Every structure is written in structure tokens, then in C-alpha cells.
Amino acid sequence: MTDYDVLRVFCGPNGGYGNELGVVREGSVLPERADRQELARKLGFSETVFVDDPERGVIDIYTPTLRLPFAGYPCVGAAWLLDVPELVTPAGIVGARQDGEFSWIEARAEWAPPRVLRQYATAAEVEALDVPGPGEWIYAWAWEDEAAGRVRARAFPGRDDGIEEDEATGAAALLLTHRLGRALNIIQGRGSQLLTAPQPHGWIEVGGRVRLER
């Protein structure tokens, strides 16, 4: 089996929760897309990152079933692991910075895959939702405290690859921030935390805590 690291991205304040991310630091060992896709399928993470140039921050991102030009939590995790000022993805150049316990990326909403952003009246309604079957990729959310920008969210990929709920989803947070036009403090899934902040000229920052699992 190819060597890889496991990170936990968008952890809660106590270091728990977050979404597991596989990172193959030596992407050159699997240069072919088909081989990368097969490894991503075997590992079974929501996303797996292959690092093609650690100094320049060139990365390649896969779900268990497809290659992605951009994804939020893989970029936050890779930025933390590589400690570089930017990442090079097929979608474009992703800015990166470290700020205390948080790792941040700067990206554009149009890079994110389509998501259905479905608002509910209360956080309790979001927490009570059953996992839907395969279909649309749904980001269910509600205000916990609108004045403070606090959001409760859950993500349902609607895929048939065994991932019924995504614990922490940077791309969806990017889209929600773009729609609302304001900074957000999102608690997603069981307790993951994502922070966002609109920037000039259509850029949006997404940040969170990252831990090395193994």
C-alpha cells in the first residue's frame, strides 16, 4: 500500500470531530489518474490529496469516485501540512496562511462544485434530519445566532459510495458565505467548526483547525 498521512480537518475547539483526509505526500509514486482514483476508492475518505510538488504546493484531489479541480477541506489540510503560501489546483491558485491554531485558504465560490443550500427555520430541525438517499448534494443549514453569524449545518453528498454524511465541507461553506455575503462561524456534522470571511474582489477565506491523526 502507498504511504499516506491522515489529517483531521475542521476540528472542534477541543480538537475532536473534523473530517478525515488522506494525503499522499509523494504523488510521483502514483502518476496515473486511474491509479490515484483506485487508491482514493480503497482508502474511502471523502477526499484524498496527492502532492505533486510540496514546495510549490501543487496538489491533485480525488473523492472515492471522481477527480475534483478544487475542494475546501483538502486544501485547508494540505495548506497546514505543507506550510506554503499558496496551493496550485486545476481550478486556480489557492492562497494559504496560518494564524495561530487556524489554517486558512482563500478561494472563489465559482470553483466549488454545485451544492443545494437548503435553509431550515431552526438548528434543531437540522440536527433532527434523516440522511436522504442518493440524489442531490444537499447542505442543510439554519441560523443559531444570525446577529453573530453562527450557523448550524449538515452535509449530505447524495452519493452511492458509502459516504452518507460529510462531517466538514469547506466548499459548501464557501458557497454559503458567498450567498450571504458575511463572515460565518459554522458548526457542522457532530461538532466540526469552520470559519469563513468574505474578502475583496470575490475571494473568500475559509479556515479551521487541523490535526495529524497518523
Automatic annotation (TrEMBL):
Pfam families: PhzC-PhzF (PF02567)
InterPro entries: Phenazine_PhzF-like
Origin superkingdom: Bacteria
Gene3D superfamilies per record: Diaminopimelate Epimerase, Chain A, domain 1 (3.10.310.10)
Annotated GO MF terms: catalytic activity
This protein's name: PhzF family phenazine biosynthesis protein
Species the sequence originates in: Streptomyces actinomycinicus
